[in-house]
Amino acid sequence: MPKLSQGDKAPDFTANDQNGQPVSLSDYKGKKVILYFYPKDDTPGCTAESCDFRDNYQSLLSQGFEVIGVSVDDEKSHKKFESKYQLPFTLIADTEHSIVEAYGVWVEKNMYGKKYMGTARTTFIINGDGIIDKVIEKVDTKNSSQQVLDLLA
Question: Which of 14, 38, 50, 81 is the most exposed place for a label (fewest CB within 10 A)?
Fold first, then answer.
């Protein structure tokens, strides 16, 4: 599936969060959502990105945003990641790869000449009507929340 872009309708999904509770994008109708896709729990870049969203979470909430992280890790891995770094937002376990595929971020990657499939670090800013307002493909993991705010300024 091709990667989604600005103006596209954000595909709805339902999957379990870090607490084993089903969460749907449609649960957030009427709210602005920062939906960020990251490769793996508790790795340096993903931790920096998630902790930046954590550190700026209240500021994002005050501007009407909800934050949702998505990776293909399972609920148990997400729970451990959430607890270790006190992450105050929802982490979706996309173990079936249905969400990463629907958003076009399940891609072929190349590390040291070895090709494999993985999640392209990407952030989607979705408005209250479920339309994608912005897509960030070159995510600055240490300043991901500021990157979002700068785009919307």
Answer: 14
